[in-house]
Design a protein that fits this description.
five-stranded antiparallel sheet, five-stranded parallel sheet, 17% strand, single chain, alpha/beta
Length: 466
């Protein structure tokens, strides 16, 4: 093989090492780093200049030399596989990896050691966080504030669902309080004294999520670990944003729900579990299925009970009550004595559409109270500047001008606004249904709402075929 071919091969090997999605760390017989790829740099949060050609023990803190799997292999000449290792980088940051470590030999002599690492730092952190959630404050339906008919209907559905062990799918936009509903269902249920775990489905890549959910089987040279299903046995797991879970993991989740048993990663024994499944989704599940983000069979299995939480823009009568509650909360946290918001702020809150829902309202109140001194009333100038800059009148002028003839008819008496809105909405929904031959799916899509939302309005306004 000529020099040019060798050079080309070297470039190829270097490219592969840099692109592979596993950490690669190689030391020579003098314990100095000779290969340190991009993924390993990402895992350990260091640059190549921090590690390359430096002695391993001068860079990392393992507690003791014998805890470094690379050094163990270098000395023992034997491979170590599937071992968890926790250590610290040169900035004092804790790193946790699952390692496969092998000796590198030449003519029977060990000339170095190679480590292939999978980052589980986030996984370990999440496991500790989940375990700490067992003793959190108990949430109940009494803590869900509001008088909106839509909200009351959701609460009643949740209370009825709490009595059973059925799966529940909670549907609502981001910031509407889906997790509060889930925790209230758990704490109103016969499982209230058992564990409750909440898992964000978008928080981890597939490989780590699978380990978190199903656990790892004990090996001769590696400790085992139960997954969330085992830890939650007898209790409840909430899968937050279920449509963020990959199709492959959705399939495995469906199998666990159906068969009520799990198998640890690397194991061959089924473990029976009794876990109630709650799930949330921020979009219409029918849209999520159509987009390929949610398996239809999993949706049917999860939606034995479906709870629809209305967005804040559909329950604006509750804004004043929620505002007072958030003021009380931050008075307690900040040691303040704020009483209310002024009329200008009240009017602004009523006009605003609240895309971030209740969570956005809380952040606005918290931000405003951080800008106050000893005032008792939140004024417009106290509101966070990014919120103040959002114009509630943007784009309304032209629309109002065009609609004036329809909205106001000089030969008729002026109706109360709520009555007129109901009359207009009933008329428009009826016309839309007639246009689509009373096909709910097509009509809902044309109106830009969910099927369930349309069906609610049909019941509310008593709309029927004519």
């Amino acid at each position: 093989m000529n020099a040019k071919t060798l050079e080309s091969l070297l470039i190829m090997y270097e490219e592969i090492l840099e692109k592979i999605d596993l950490g690669i760390h190689v030391i020579d017989s003098n314990e100095r780093t000779v290969i340190y790829n991009k993924k390993m740099r990402e895992i350990e949060g260091m640059g190549i200049e921090d590690v390359l050609d430096k002695n391993l023990m001068d860079v990392f803190d393992f507690g003791a030399a014998e805890e470094s799997t690379l050094l163990q292999v270098l000395k023992s000449r034997e491979s170590i596989q599937n071992v968890k290792q926790t250590y610290f980088n040169n900035k004092g940051q804790e790193i946790t990896t699952i390692n496969h470590t092998f000796p590198i030999t030449e003519n029977g002599t060990v000339i170095g050691a190679m480590e292939i690492a999978k980052d589980v730092t986030k996984l370990e952190k999440m496991i500790h966080e989940n375990m700490s959630k067992k003793d959190e404050i108990r949430y109940t339906f009494d803590q869900i504030l509001g008088q909106s008919p839509l909200l009351k209907e959701a609460i009643e559905t949740g209370k009825r669902a709490a009595r059973t062990a059925s799966s529940v799918l909670i549907i609502g936009e981001i910031g509407t309080g889906k997790e509060l509903f889930a925790r209230s269902i758990h704490h109103d249920s016969p499982r209230s004294e058992q564990a409750f775990f909440s898992q964000n489905c978008a928080a981890l890549p597939d490989t780590l999520m699978e380990t978190l959910l199903f656990g790892i089987e004990e090996q001769p040279d590696a400790e085992g670990r139960p997954g969330l299903f085992e830890q939650a046995d007898g209790g409840t797991i909430l899968f937050d944003e279920i449509d963020s879970l990959s199709p492959a993991l959705q399939t495995k989740l469906l199998k666990v729900i159906q068969e009520k048993k799990v198998r640890r990663e690397g194991g061959n024994t089924d473990i029976f579990v009794d876990v109630r499944i709650l799930a949330t989704i921020s979009e219409d599940p029918i849209d999520a299925i159509a987009a390929g983000n949610l398996r239809k069979d999993l949706y049917y299995r999860l939606s034995a009970v479906s709870i629809f939480i209305p967005p804040l823009r559909e329950r604006k009568d509750d804004i004043e009550l929620l505002t007072s509650a958030f003021i009380d909360k931050y008075n307690h946290l900040f040691g303040m004595d704020v009483l209310s918001v002024d009329e200008e702020v009240k009017n602004y809150f009523q006009q605003y559409e609240w895309p971030g829902n209740i969570r956005e309202l809380e952040h606005v109140i918290e931000g405003a109270m951080n800008l106050m001194d000893h005032e008792e009333t939140i004024s417009f100038d106290h509101l966070p500047i990014q919120f103040r800059n959002k114009s509630v009148n943007c784009g309304l002028s032209n629309d109002l001008e065009k609609a004036e003839g329809f909205l106001y008819q000089s030969d008729k008496a002026i109706l109360p606004l709520d009555d007129y809105i109901q009359e207009a909405e009933t008329y428009y929904i009826t016309k839309a249904l007639q246009h689509h031959d009373f096909n709910i799916t097509k009509t809902a899509k044309a109106l830009g709402m969910s099927r369930q939302n349309l069906q609610y309005r049909i019941r509310k306004y008593n709309i029927g075929k004519v």
